[in-house]
Amino acid sequence: MNERLRTAMLRHGVALEDLAETCGVEPKTVERWINTGRVPHRRHRWAAAKLLTADETYLWPDVLESSQARRGGANRSELVEVFPDRASVPREVWLRLLSDVQQKVDVLVFSGTFFAQTQPKIARLLAETAARGVAIRLCFGDPNAQSVETRDREEGLGGTLAAKIRSSLTYYRSLPELDGCEMRLHSTTLYASLFRYDDDLLVNPHAYGEPASANPTFHFRRLDGGTMAEHYLSSFERVWAGAVPWSGAEI
């Protein structure tokens, strides 16, 4: 017996016929919900929960368990592949993702030197992508930021990271002038480099004292009901919101 449902109905003075009418079902159906513990269809649960001013997962705890199971399955399905380090991501993957993208390209890095090295004529490729109507957002580290100096020291780069960023930016000087292309410089502590192509996302997390290239890279594909890809996409949005627009001028 579903004691929670029965008690909620009693406390609110809701009869079988009242709940049945609200949910658009027969009173016999409501009896089965109470006496056998049967879980109603989602739209019926929502209608009943609204009438009884209760959460559906309180009235039907099994819903929460099944929801968590579905979410867990979706999260596992979002993970397409794991690469032991960023260098193991085939060049063909980078090129395919860029050539197949239809709506959005988002990149979040400190210097992203390899991004141009694995994709010769990257500026032209991105310009052609933008010309197809794809929105492009590139977010690099501000070479003058304290966070860049800190990362340089942690990775033992000998003061070269700021110079690498400046060098990398030279590839993209012409892009801010194009419609659909935006570039910004961030000063955040970067915990993961992100490369988003529509619903595909490559995440390169950073381990303390290790260069980004030596850290694993995870390929996610966003799915309905999944949360892992969206977790990192939201992170990009937060960094982007606090970053400063870059016009392509020298820095």
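The above is record 1. Record 2 follows with the same two-line structure.
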Amino acid sequence: MGKTAGGNATRGNAARGQSPSFVIQWHDASQRHFDVRLEVGGVLKSWAVPKGPSTDPSEKRLAIEVEDHKLDYADFEGVIPEGQYGAGTVMVWDRGGYRNLDSSHSVAEGLKRGLIEVWLDGEKIRGGYAFKRIEGGDKPQWLMIKMRDEGADARRNPVSTQDRSVKTGRTLAQIRDAEAST
């Protein structure tokens, strides 16, 4: 998977009694997309979201389930070398904690059932989001849908207006260029 980050971080927030974490990484790979990752059961459950998250509840974003990642991958920002899985530049676009909005099921159970509802408390994205599994495709496909709440805003488009890392303040190009010069 290329470079790893986070050093010795083996326990996530949930294991330490804090809110579980989420991260959204902007990934400039063969196709530019956003990877939305939720800490669940000691791993990062992950979806590739081609258009990135929306703050407009009327927009449903395709979210393709991808392999789980280790918790320390949430902190990775850099370039995955050519020839390796996921080759390309990765930015920590947003991060924070989240909570389950469904009091009748855990997030892990919701994943099995095909519906999770979470409140994301990030630096760019805040509010309720539903992930609903749909039929089709080689990999499980979901929809990522913004809920109607105070974080909803049909006029706001953070994917196009907020292009810097919450970790380092760099753009994708600056991350790529910095790694190329080392």
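Confidence is low (pLDDT under 50) at residues 1-10.
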